[in-house]
Each structure stands twice: as structure tokens, then as C-alpha cells.
Amino acid sequence: MEPIRKEELDDQACGSLAPKSKPCPRPKPGEAAGGCSFDGAQITLLPIMDAAHLVHGPVACAGNSWESRGSLSSGPSLSQYGFATDLSNNDIIFGGEKKLKDSIDYIAGRFAPPAIFVYSTCVTALIGEDMDAVCKEASDRLAIPIVPVNSPGFVGSKNLGNRLAGDALLQYVIGTGEPEQETPLGVNLIGEYNIAGEMWDIEKLMNQAGITLLSRITGDARYKEITWAHRAKANMVVCSRALLGLAKQMESKYGIPYFEGSFYGAKETTYSLRQMAFLLNDREMERRVDRLTEREENRLAHDLRPYRKILKGKKAVLYTGGVKSWSVISALKELGIQVVGVGTNKSSDEDVQRIADRVGDDTEYIPEGGASRIIKTVKERKADIMIAGGRNMYVAMKEQIPFVDINQERHKAYAGYEGLLRLAKELVDSMVNPIWKLASSPAPWDKEGNYDR
Amino acid sequence: MTVKRRSKPVSVNPLKIGQSLGGVLAMQGCYRAMPIVHGSQGCSAFPKALLTRHFREPIAVQTSALQEMDVIFDANRNLEEALNAVLSKHRPDIIGIIGTELTDVAGVDYQSMLKSYKRERNMRGGLAFSVTLPDFRGSLESGYSVTVEAMVDELIQQAGLRGQRNVNSRQITLLPGSYLTPGDVMELKEIVSSFGFEVIALPDISTSLSGHLLTGFSPLTRGGVPLDSMLQSLQSGLTIAFGASMERPARRLHNALGTPYKVFQGTMGLKASDELLNFLHQISGVPVPIRYCWQRENLLDCMLDAHFQFAGVSALAALEPDHLRSVSEWLDELGVEQKALITSYETPVVAEMEREVWVGDLDDAEVLGSGADLWISSSHGIAGAERIGAAFLAAGFPIWNELGSYMNVSVGYRGAMEWTNKAGNLLMRREAEHRESRVRHR
Ligand code: SF4
């Protein structure tokens, strides 16, 4: 059997197309954590809110994963539907292509989506279903784009899945449409998934600076806007290494310059807005951005004062994926928090370099090893708070460690100036909560010598 | 009566949960256990994330982390590596290997691999077994019960029957079905033990997923029934199974050890509770404890108070088979019209129900139950309930929109009362909202 997408696997890059980056480590049996490539592909594409997302395989890949992301929509919600071809034993023996075709027809007929994304899963890849052909045939017949996403779980990690999803966008979507009106100063955001509505804060800032957000790839996106992404004047890769390849290819194919940036922390936010203006090459715009960022930073500094008083000198352990590992450090530093431990398991060499630029020498790097290793660091370094993803939240609760959720499932938006203020408040609220005292004091009858005889 | 399906090529908003997740859930009820999902990363990551979200507890699970080439060439090499890692690092008492659709389709023989692995290595009296739970069959319920069955088999093997069994007639083994919450299991243990029995629940999620504060991190399960007690359960004088899906493991115990068993298919409502308490009363000769007599009256009084609320009301329920049967029985007692009953896959128990049951998804629930006042399903149903304007009552798995749902009790008189009040309150609030919106729009 032919391996799936040999080129991708061979170019050994997990996050980017750069030959320098280290290969994706093979997940260790018995010690691995984290999602599969199929999961990664969904993370990237599900925020295309008006499209239908059909999972081709047994029901569990879809059944266990739908409605598990905190990516918000400002309108259409079709992407929140869980569609699955739900293959049975028989379908697997005799092939599921007919069922796939019927499913596509059904969805197109009943929901009339602007596009359908079809995801392969391990089983359909293993039995060699020709998904591309089915999609192509249906696409021609129904006259709507039907995009095959060849990212079955077993080809690798979540990161690789993000990338394969990016490839699908490049191959099937970007460049197939034209914007409704000419936008000379349009920027695309790549790898911003609008978790907890962060995109909306960013969009507001961009609007205030007069920068048009041309395509959102893909937080709170509509299918159409991605088709015209090639008309942007600049790309910003937000916190997602895995989609750096997409930006690079758009640069070589369409000549769109890109930069990597973040919106965590005031400094990073200001830098990102400036960088956009710079790439758009418009003096007037640059002046506007300067005025805006100065005003916002001043206001923020004022609003943050009471929080900074409490947070100054506090220690945190940060355990999150890839880009966030360094970008959140900047935000925490601005709040006066010292990062005493930081996870590097999903970070590339460049990420680690950026972490090193931002933390002191005595910060502990946590390369891997999951919850027990993180907790050890928290205890040894006497950290006041743990900042990580939901997976580790309840482990922290058991150990009675104050916790702030920074990943997918969180409910608060931390991007931009407003976001930093929210983060500061969240950190303070979590640390000063009365529960820590209550939970650590024993029941009265367990206290020694406090009863009268 | 009849089980029906709507013809539709695609599953829209699935109700089905992968079997392997059921297997992982069953393992959580055993102390110092580690399920290893024999498949790719995602097949363990999704269940872990989903179970964590529902129970708000860390979940013990590992994976053989198969990648494409491993599946094609030698999947068991990964499994061996996983076993080595888990055994050397964490020393679990119990290991359950859960085969997935991936190993199934690729035809991987991990059963014999496990046998020779156990022969070659000293497993130090631990329990290790494997199950095959491809996701294109069954659902959470079957995955859970098949895993318990395999666990029971392995226990029997391990104990080697040791000649004569020392039957302890005061000890009862409980086999709680997958739809019961930790709170339910706790309540059932309490009810049975209040008749003077020693009770061993197998598995016992009431001590692992009910929210305790053990510190000192371990990636293994932190509570549940310990291996000693599991072995001891083989001496029980009786098995009580809750949910029809648990009859098979009960039968295993019966066939191998001669342990008689009793299955309670229903666990919700007055009649189901009466049946259980009367049975316990009969076999123990102990009068029904006064607190249950009180609870019975409380329940009846609550039903009288609530009946105004339920009169003329219609409901739909979309749940796993055993759960659906139980909930339907409770709805019957309330006199609620059952507009649509939907389940994830067909089992004998739903085929025998006196009502029409549909095998389908939450989209079917929306279509068939259109016009219903009350919607009963997992949190996946919230959007559908909103679309048809029904009050939403969370039940089943997964539930993420409320705190503490894992401690909800539905069994016994107390459980029936809790549910009746909760459903009644939802309907009352809905009525008030409708009134308000009428006033506003005039
Ligand atoms: S690893 Fe494969 S089978 Fe498992 S959830 Fe991911 S895509 Fe589905």
C-alpha cells in the first residue's frame, strides 16, 4: 500500500517547511499524549463556520470529537454539526465510497452549504478509499467546492494535521475566488482560531488602525473569504507554527510577505500591528498605528496598576504548546510575573530560542513528561500558579494549585490589550480565591488538641 | 415493540460514542489500573479529553501510538513498547488492552501477543486482559460491558477456582451499568448494604470519579475497586446487575462459579425502586430500612405535587439503550407523552420495549421529537433542543454544561425524586419564559 502523502512525511518537518526544523518526534507508545492528525486538521478547518465538515470513517472519530472546541462563531453554525459517514463493518469490507457520495449529496441537498470539507480517518485511509476522486466527482456534479482533507490520525501528530489542513486550503480553496470589492490594504490572519472570541478583539484593533482584515484563516471564517486570501498585501501567522508553511507557500506563489507574531501581551500586540503597517508599506497607516498603540498602551498601563501590585514577583509555571510558550511569557512578564518553568515539548528550535530570549537563566525547561513533571516543577520552584491547557486542569486541582487555562477550551479571551487586562484579572482572581485556604486546612476533628475534656 | 431507523446516508450529530471509550470508562472504576488503547494517538486522546470534560477529573489512559507504517507492518511492537513503558514506570495492578477499529481492520492479533508477553514476563500477580472494541459496532454501553466481561473472565482465570469456593452468602457483587453515575453507584452500594450485605461493585467508579482529594500525582487510576476486592468478589453469594447490558458478565460468574444472579433492567422511578428494595428485603429477611420507607413517601408526595407540571407534557429522550429503557419507565410513571425515543444502537432490551424506539442520531431526535416540551440527552443535544424550543434536561454522556452532574442520582426513590423535581423545574421555568415572551410581543 502506498503511504499517504509521502512528500509531507519525508520533508520531515512537523511545523514548517523549513528544512532546518527538527523532524516530528515519533510518539512514544505508553507515554504519548495529545491528539492525532485528524484532530489537528479539524482544529484548523472547523472554524470555517458556514461550511459542512464531514468525517469519513466509523462514527467515533466524529462522535468523540464534535463540539469540543471553543472556537466561536458570529453567525452561521453549520460547522458545529457533527457529520459522519458512520461506516459499519460491511462498509469497511465492501468499501465506503458509495456511502461517502450519498452523504455528500444528502448534505448538499439539505443544508446547501457553500462548501463541504471531507476528512479521511485511519480506517478509510487504511482500506485505500479514493476520497479525492469521490470529492472531485461530487464537486463537478453538484457545482459546490468539496475539499478532501487527507489527514488520517495515524500519519502523525496534531501539528502535522494543522499543516495538512493548510495544504488542503492551498490546493483547493485559496485563489479560487475574488473579493467583493478591491481592498488595497488587506491583511490575512493565519492560525487564529477565535478561541473564546479572541479574534474579535484583534479585529477591532485592526479596524481602529484602518487595516482591513481580508481573510480569517480560519477563526470565525466564512468559506468565501478564504477563496480570495491570495489578494492580501500581507500575511500574519498568529501563534501557529503548523501553518507557517501555508504563509511561506503563499509568499512564493502569490508574492505575499508574511511575518510571525502574537497578540499576547501589549508589547507583542503593538509589534504585530506595527509590522502589519510596515508590510503594507503605507506611511499614513504607520502613523495611525503608532497613535493607536500609544493610546492603548497608556490606557492599559493605567488599568493594570491594581493587578500588577498583586502579581508583581509571583511565580508561574507555563505549560502550553508551540508558539504560545514564548508569546505568553511576554504577556506574563509585562504583568510582573516570573516564569520559573516552561514546557517545550511541542516547541520548535526557533520557539525554544524565543523562550530563551524571554526568560532568565534559572527557568526550568520541561521538555515532556506530562502532568507529574509539571507538578514537580511547580512544587520545587514554589510557583504560585500553573498556566496550562485543560488536560492538566484537574490534575492541578487535586494538588490544590491555582490554575489558569490557556488553551482550546478556555472561556476567556486573552489577546490584545483588553485581553491582557482580562488575563491579569483572571490570574489575580484565581490566586486570591478563598478555596486555597479552605482546602488546605484540616477538618476541625483532625486538628490536634482543640477539644475540651 | 419495533425498532426503526430513518433512512439517511449520513449520521448527523451523532449520538453514538465509540465503544473504546466505554472500555476506558470501565477501567476507571478499578484501582491502580491503566487502559492501553491499541490504536493511533487520537483514539486515546479523544476519549481522555471527553471523559475529563464530563467527570472533571484526570483520566488514566495510554496508547500504543500506532502510526501508519506500524499498522501495516508490526502493530504489536508498539504495544509491547507501551506495555514495557507502563509496567516499568507506573507498576499498575490492572492493565486492559483495548483493541480499536484500526487493529481490527488491520487484523492485528494482540490477544496471543499478550498471552506470550505475560508468559515471558513476570506480571507480579497483576491482572492483564484484552478486549476488541472497534468503533463501527456498538456504542459506549457495549464497550463498557464487554470490558467488564473480559475483566471478570480474567479474574476467574487468575483465581484458578482454587478448588472449593468459600461462598460468602452475606456478600454481593454489584455490576453497575455504564449509564450510572458515580453518585448512582454510591447510592446502590448504600441501598444494598443497608440490608446487611457486604458489597463489592465491579467496576466501582463511585470511589474514583466522584471527586476526591487524594494528593500525590499518579497517572494510574486513583480510586475504584482494588484488585484484592475484585478477587474476593468471586466468593460472593449473589450477583446483582443493573442494566441489561450487564447480564453477560453476570452470566460469566454464574457459569464459572455457579453464582446466582439477578438483573434489574430498570433503575429509575417508583416501580423499579420498589422492585429492588422488595428483592433485597426478601433475600435478606431484613425489614426495609425506615429511611427508604420515608423516601418512598417523599417520592410519592413529590410526584403528586409535580403532576400538574407534567400533565399534557411531551418528551423525547436520546440515550444509550439501557439508559433509554430506564428513563422511559420513569416517564411512564409521570404520565408524560413520549414523543420520540432514540438510541445509539439496537440491543435486545430496546427491541423488547413496549414503545417505538428509533436507532439514530440527534438530528433524528430533532425531527421525530419536533414539538416536544422536554428534551433528555447528553450536552450534544443542547443546540437541537433550542432549535425545537424544548426544555433541555442533561442525561447520559457527555455532559459539560453543568457542574457536578457526575454526582447526580437517578436510582432509588431519592434519584426518582431528584429527577422529577429537576424536570418539573425546567418545565416550570420554560412556561414562565413563554409567558414573558407573549407579554413582550404584544
Ligand atoms: S487516530 Fe485515527 S481512528 Fe483514532 S480518532 Fe484519530 S482519525 Fe480516528
Task: Give an overview in words.
The complex is a heterodimer of chains A (453) and B (442). Chain A is α/β, with parallel strands linked by helices. Chain A contains 19 helices and 13 strands. Chain A has helices at residues 6-10, 37-45, 59-63, 89-94, 97-111, 122-126, 131-142, 158-172, 198-208, 223-227, 244-254, 266-280, 283-311, 324-334, 349-358, 370-380, 393-398, 416-431, 435-440, and strands at 52-56, 83-84, 116-120, 146-149, 186-190, 212-217, 234-238, 258-261, 315-319, 338-343, 364-366, 385-388, 403-405. A 5-stranded parallel sheet of chain A has the order 11-10-9-12-13, sandwiched between helices. In chain A, strands 2-1-3-4 form a 4-stranded parallel sheet, sandwiched between helices. A 4-stranded parallel sheet of chain A has the order 6-5-7-8, sandwiched between helices. In chain A, helix 9 links the parallel strand 5 and strand 6. In chain A, helix 14 packs parallel to helix 15. Chain A is globular, with a radius of gyration of 23 Å. The termini of chain A are far apart. By secondary structure, chain B is of the alpha/beta class. A 6-stranded parallel sheet of chain B has the order 1-13-12-11-14-15, sandwiched between helices. A 4-stranded parallel sheet of chain B has the order 4-3-5-6, with helices on both faces. Chain B has a 4-stranded parallel sheet with strand order 8-7-9-10, sandwiched between helices. In chain B, helix 1 (19-28) packs across helix 7 and helix 12 (290-310) runs parallel beside helix 17 (412-440). The mean pLDDT of chain B is 93. The chains are: A alpha/beta (453), B alpha/beta (442). Chains A and B meet through helix 2, helix 3, strand 2, helix 4 and helix 5 of A and strand 2, helix 1, helix 2, strand 4 and helix 3 of B. Iron/sulfur cluster sits between chains A (36, 38, 61, 121-122, 152-154) and B (39-43, 46, 102).
